[in-house]
Design brief:
The protein is an alpha/beta fold. Helix 3 (103-121) crosses helix 4. It has an 8-stranded mixed sheet, sandwiched between helices. The chain has a single domain, classed as 3-Layer(aba) Sandwich (Rossmann fold), CATH 3.40.50. The longest helix has 25 residues, at 2-26. It has 8 helices and 8 strands; from the N terminus they run αβαβββαβαβααβαβα. It starts with a helix and ends with a helix. Strand 2 (65-72) and strand 3 (78-82) form a beta hairpin. The chain is globular and about 55 Å long. Pfam families: DUF915 (PF06028). This is Alpha/beta hydrolase.
Length: 278
Protein backbone atom coordinates (compact mmCIF):
# COMPACT_ATOMS: atom_id res chain seq x y z
CA UNK A 1 0.00 0.00 0.00
CA UNK A 2 2.89 2.32 0.78
CA UNK A 3 4.37 1.84 -2.70
CA UNK A 4 0.93 2.30 -4.27
CA UNK A 5 0.46 5.58 -2.40
CA UNK A 6 3.89 6.79 -3.52
CA UNK A 7 3.08 5.84 -7.13
CA UNK A 8 -0.26 7.67 -7.10
CA UNK A 9 1.36 10.69 -5.47
CA UNK A 10 4.09 10.77 -8.09
CA UNK A 11 1.53 10.62 -10.89
CA UNK A 12 -0.48 13.48 -9.38
CA UNK A 13 2.62 15.64 -8.96
CA UNK A 14 3.59 14.91 -12.56
CA UNK A 15 0.14 15.93 -13.81
CA UNK A 16 0.28 19.17 -11.84
CA UNK A 17 3.68 20.08 -13.31
CA UNK A 18 2.43 19.18 -16.81
CA UNK A 19 -0.63 21.44 -16.46
CA UNK A 20 1.47 24.32 -15.12
CA UNK A 21 3.98 24.04 -17.95
CA UNK A 22 1.22 23.76 -20.56
CA UNK A 23 -0.51 26.85 -19.23
CA UNK A 24 2.68 28.89 -19.15
CA UNK A 25 3.65 27.87 -22.67
CA UNK A 26 0.21 28.81 -24.05
CA UNK A 27 0.46 32.26 -22.50
CA UNK A 28 3.93 33.02 -23.78
CA UNK A 29 4.17 36.62 -25.03
CA UNK A 30 3.62 37.09 -28.76
CA UNK A 31 6.48 38.87 -30.45
CA UNK A 32 5.45 42.23 -31.93
CA UNK A 33 6.77 41.05 -35.29
CA UNK A 34 4.16 38.25 -35.22
CA UNK A 35 1.31 40.66 -34.49
CA UNK A 36 -0.60 42.26 -37.38
CA UNK A 37 -3.51 44.46 -36.27
CA UNK A 38 -6.24 45.26 -38.78
CA UNK A 39 -7.55 48.82 -38.97
CA UNK A 40 -11.21 49.33 -39.94
CA UNK A 41 -11.73 52.78 -41.48
CA UNK A 42 -15.24 54.02 -42.28
CA UNK A 43 -16.27 56.22 -45.17
CA UNK A 44 -17.97 59.57 -45.74
CA UNK A 45 -20.60 60.17 -43.03
CA UNK A 46 -19.61 56.90 -41.34
CA UNK A 47 -19.45 56.24 -37.62
CA UNK A 48 -19.30 53.58 -34.88
CA UNK A 49 -21.94 51.38 -36.51
CA UNK A 50 -20.31 51.37 -39.96
CA UNK A 51 -18.05 48.38 -39.31
CA UNK A 52 -19.31 47.12 -35.96
CA UNK A 53 -21.46 44.27 -37.28
CA UNK A 54 -18.68 43.07 -39.58
CA UNK A 55 -16.27 43.13 -36.65
CA UNK A 56 -18.80 41.18 -34.56
CA UNK A 57 -19.12 38.52 -37.26
CA UNK A 58 -15.36 38.19 -37.66
CA UNK A 59 -14.96 37.89 -33.90
CA UNK A 60 -17.52 35.09 -33.82
CA UNK A 61 -15.45 33.30 -36.48
CA UNK A 62 -12.39 33.82 -34.25
CA UNK A 63 -10.46 35.65 -36.96
CA UNK A 64 -9.50 38.37 -34.50
CA UNK A 65 -10.75 40.49 -31.64
CA UNK A 66 -11.57 44.17 -31.34
CA UNK A 67 -9.12 45.58 -28.80
CA UNK A 68 -8.88 49.26 -29.58
CA UNK A 69 -10.98 52.18 -30.78
CA UNK A 70 -9.21 55.33 -31.96
CA UNK A 71 -11.31 58.50 -31.96
CA UNK A 72 -10.00 61.35 -34.11
CA UNK A 73 -11.24 64.81 -33.12
CA UNK A 74 -11.85 67.48 -35.72
CA UNK A 75 -8.52 69.06 -34.82
CA UNK A 76 -6.71 65.74 -35.27
CA UNK A 77 -6.25 64.95 -31.56
CA UNK A 78 -6.50 61.25 -30.79
CA UNK A 79 -8.40 59.55 -27.99
CA UNK A 80 -7.53 55.88 -27.68
CA UNK A 81 -9.82 53.43 -25.93
CA UNK A 82 -8.47 49.99 -25.08
CA UNK A 83 -5.01 48.62 -25.84
CA UNK A 84 -3.15 45.95 -27.77
CA UNK A 85 -3.12 42.68 -25.86
CA UNK A 86 -1.56 39.34 -26.72
CA UNK A 87 -3.08 38.45 -30.08
CA UNK A 88 -1.78 37.91 -33.59
CA UNK A 89 -4.75 39.64 -35.22
CA UNK A 90 -6.17 42.39 -33.01
CA UNK A 91 -8.83 44.67 -34.54
CA UNK A 92 -8.65 48.47 -34.34
CA UNK A 93 -11.67 50.61 -35.23
CA UNK A 94 -10.92 54.15 -36.42
CA UNK A 95 -13.61 56.83 -36.00
CA UNK A 96 -13.43 60.37 -37.37
CA UNK A 97 -15.41 63.10 -35.61
CA UNK A 98 -15.40 65.10 -38.84
CA UNK A 99 -16.58 62.34 -41.15
CA UNK A 100 -17.07 64.81 -44.01
CA UNK A 101 -13.50 66.12 -44.05
CA UNK A 102 -11.29 66.20 -47.13
CA UNK A 103 -9.16 63.29 -48.31
CA UNK A 104 -6.00 65.20 -47.40
CA UNK A 105 -7.22 65.99 -43.87
CA UNK A 106 -8.21 62.42 -43.13
CA UNK A 107 -4.97 61.15 -44.66
CA UNK A 108 -3.03 63.43 -42.32
CA UNK A 109 -5.01 62.10 -39.34
CA UNK A 110 -4.31 58.55 -40.44
CA UNK A 111 -0.59 59.36 -40.48
CA UNK A 112 -0.89 60.45 -36.84
CA UNK A 113 -2.66 57.22 -35.95
CA UNK A 114 0.07 55.14 -37.57
CA UNK A 115 2.82 57.00 -35.74
CA UNK A 116 1.09 56.49 -32.40
CA UNK A 117 0.70 52.77 -33.09
CA UNK A 118 4.40 52.44 -33.82
CA UNK A 119 5.88 54.58 -31.06
CA UNK A 120 3.39 53.97 -28.24
CA UNK A 121 2.44 50.36 -28.97
CA UNK A 122 5.46 49.11 -30.94
CA UNK A 123 3.27 47.85 -33.78
CA UNK A 124 5.48 46.80 -36.68
CA UNK A 125 2.92 46.02 -39.36
CA UNK A 126 -0.82 46.36 -40.02
CA UNK A 127 -3.58 45.49 -42.46
CA UNK A 128 -6.26 48.01 -43.45
CA UNK A 129 -9.91 47.60 -44.44
CA UNK A 130 -11.50 50.78 -45.78
CA UNK A 131 -15.11 51.31 -46.82
CA UNK A 132 -15.88 53.89 -49.50
CA UNK A 133 -13.91 57.06 -48.68
CA UNK A 134 -12.05 55.06 -46.03
CA UNK A 135 -10.47 53.14 -48.90
CA UNK A 136 -9.53 56.38 -50.67
CA UNK A 137 -7.72 57.83 -47.68
CA UNK A 138 -5.97 54.51 -47.02
CA UNK A 139 -4.64 54.38 -50.59
CA UNK A 140 -3.70 58.07 -50.42
CA UNK A 141 -1.86 57.40 -47.17
CA UNK A 142 0.18 54.68 -48.87
CA UNK A 143 1.08 57.07 -51.68
CA UNK A 144 2.52 59.50 -49.14
CA UNK A 145 3.62 57.24 -46.27
CA UNK A 146 7.00 57.50 -44.56
CA UNK A 147 7.29 53.93 -43.34
CA UNK A 148 10.28 54.53 -41.10
CA UNK A 149 7.94 56.49 -38.80
CA UNK A 150 4.97 54.13 -39.09
CA UNK A 151 4.07 50.44 -39.18
CA UNK A 152 4.48 48.68 -42.51
CA UNK A 153 1.17 48.10 -44.27
CA UNK A 154 1.01 44.47 -45.38
CA UNK A 155 -2.40 44.37 -47.09
CA UNK A 156 -5.10 46.85 -48.05
CA UNK A 157 -8.72 45.87 -48.75
CA UNK A 158 -11.15 48.50 -50.04
CA UNK A 159 -14.92 48.08 -50.20
CA UNK A 160 -17.00 50.18 -52.62
CA UNK A 161 -14.34 52.91 -52.82
CA UNK A 162 -14.92 55.44 -55.65
CA UNK A 163 -11.45 55.97 -57.11
CA UNK A 164 -13.01 57.59 -60.17
CA UNK A 165 -15.50 59.55 -58.12
CA UNK A 166 -19.26 59.42 -57.59
CA UNK A 167 -21.40 60.30 -60.61
CA UNK A 168 -24.87 59.68 -59.20
CA UNK A 169 -27.17 62.49 -60.29
CA UNK A 170 -28.13 64.88 -57.51
CA UNK A 171 -25.83 63.31 -54.92
CA UNK A 172 -23.79 66.44 -54.26
CA UNK A 173 -26.86 68.62 -53.99
CA UNK A 174 -28.05 66.74 -50.92
CA UNK A 175 -24.66 66.28 -49.20
CA UNK A 176 -22.09 68.71 -47.89
CA UNK A 177 -18.56 69.00 -46.49
CA UNK A 178 -15.07 69.23 -47.97
CA UNK A 179 -15.25 65.57 -48.96
CA UNK A 180 -17.94 66.31 -51.53
CA UNK A 181 -15.37 68.23 -53.57
CA UNK A 182 -12.90 65.34 -53.48
CA UNK A 183 -15.51 62.68 -54.29
CA UNK A 184 -16.51 64.22 -57.61
CA UNK A 185 -15.19 62.62 -60.82
CA UNK A 186 -11.79 64.01 -61.90
CA UNK A 187 -11.41 65.99 -58.67
CA UNK A 188 -7.94 67.32 -57.91
CA UNK A 189 -7.55 64.90 -55.02
CA UNK A 190 -8.35 61.84 -57.17
CA UNK A 191 -6.18 63.01 -60.07
CA UNK A 192 -3.24 63.57 -57.72
CA UNK A 193 -3.49 59.99 -56.50
CA UNK A 194 -3.03 58.70 -60.06
CA UNK A 195 -0.16 61.13 -60.64
CA UNK A 196 1.61 59.69 -57.59
CA UNK A 197 1.09 56.05 -58.57
CA UNK A 198 4.85 55.47 -58.85
CA UNK A 199 5.07 56.11 -55.10
CA UNK A 200 2.78 53.20 -54.20
CA UNK A 201 4.74 50.77 -52.00
CA UNK A 202 5.91 47.69 -53.94
CA UNK A 203 5.14 45.25 -51.12
CA UNK A 204 1.46 46.00 -50.38
CA UNK A 205 -1.11 43.51 -51.67
CA UNK A 206 -4.46 45.10 -52.53
CA UNK A 207 -8.01 43.81 -52.87
CA UNK A 208 -10.86 45.92 -54.29
CA UNK A 209 -14.44 44.74 -53.68
CA UNK A 210 -17.37 46.23 -55.60
CA UNK A 211 -21.08 45.58 -55.19
CA UNK A 212 -23.37 45.10 -58.19
CA UNK A 213 -27.09 45.19 -57.48
CA UNK A 214 -28.17 45.25 -61.15
CA UNK A 215 -26.43 42.27 -62.75
CA UNK A 216 -28.78 42.28 -65.75
CA UNK A 217 -27.82 45.84 -66.73
CA UNK A 218 -25.02 46.55 -69.24
CA UNK A 219 -21.59 46.25 -67.62
CA UNK A 220 -20.89 49.97 -67.82
CA UNK A 221 -23.97 50.57 -65.66
CA UNK A 222 -23.08 48.05 -62.93
CA UNK A 223 -23.15 49.76 -59.54
CA UNK A 224 -24.08 49.47 -55.86
CA UNK A 225 -26.69 52.20 -56.06
CA UNK A 226 -24.12 54.95 -55.49
CA UNK A 227 -20.70 53.91 -56.79
CA UNK A 228 -20.15 52.29 -60.16
CA UNK A 229 -17.98 49.16 -60.32
CA UNK A 230 -15.75 50.93 -62.85
CA UNK A 231 -15.04 53.59 -60.22
CA UNK A 232 -13.97 50.96 -57.68
CA UNK A 233 -11.79 49.34 -60.36
CA UNK A 234 -10.06 52.70 -60.77
CA UNK A 235 -7.72 51.57 -58.00
CA UNK A 236 -5.88 49.45 -60.55
CA UNK A 237 -4.63 52.69 -62.14
CA UNK A 238 -2.71 53.35 -58.91
CA UNK A 239 -1.53 49.94 -57.71
CA UNK A 240 1.44 48.29 -59.50
CA UNK A 241 0.77 45.24 -61.65
CA UNK A 242 0.81 42.01 -59.68
CA UNK A 243 -0.25 43.64 -56.39
CA UNK A 244 -3.88 44.24 -57.34
CA UNK A 245 -6.88 41.92 -57.35
CA UNK A 246 -10.60 42.59 -57.46
CA UNK A 247 -13.86 40.86 -56.61
CA UNK A 248 -17.31 41.76 -57.95
CA UNK A 249 -20.19 40.81 -55.65
CA UNK A 250 -23.42 40.28 -57.60
CA UNK A 251 -26.25 40.52 -55.11
CA UNK A 252 -29.33 42.71 -54.80
CA UNK A 253 -28.29 43.29 -51.19
CA UNK A 254 -24.80 44.49 -52.20
CA UNK A 255 -25.72 48.15 -51.96
CA UNK A 256 -23.19 50.80 -51.03
CA UNK A 257 -24.02 50.64 -47.33
CA UNK A 258 -25.07 46.99 -47.41
CA UNK A 259 -22.01 45.49 -49.07
CA UNK A 260 -20.00 45.19 -45.87
CA UNK A 261 -22.95 43.45 -44.20
CA UNK A 262 -22.74 40.40 -46.47
CA UNK A 263 -21.20 37.13 -45.31
CA UNK A 264 -19.78 36.71 -48.81
CA UNK A 265 -17.69 39.83 -48.31
CA UNK A 266 -16.52 38.56 -44.91
CA UNK A 267 -15.24 35.41 -46.60
CA UNK A 268 -13.44 37.36 -49.32
CA UNK A 269 -11.71 39.46 -46.67
CA UNK A 270 -10.91 36.47 -44.47
CA UNK A 271 -9.24 34.65 -47.34
CA UNK A 272 -7.31 37.71 -48.51
CA UNK A 273 -6.14 39.03 -45.15
CA UNK A 274 -5.74 35.91 -43.04
CA UNK A 275 -5.92 33.01 -45.51
CA UNK A 276 -9.12 31.79 -43.87
CA UNK A 277 -10.89 29.08 -45.85
CA UNK A 278 -14.16 28.75 -43.90
Amino acid sequence: MKWLSLLVGSILIGLIFFMINSKSSSSEPIDKEEMTPTLFIHGYKGGPRSFQTMIDRMQSLEWGKKQMVIYVASDGDLTIQGGIQQSRTPFIQVLFENNRASINSQTHWLEGIMQRLKYDYEIQQVNIIGHSMGGLISANYLLNAQEFTAPKVEKLAVIASPFKGISKEGYFKSNYGEATTDLQPKSEALVQMIEKKNQFPPHVDVLAIAGIINKEAPEQLHWDGLVHASSVKGLQDIVPFGQYQEEMVYNKQASHSGLHELAEVDLLLGKFLWEQQN
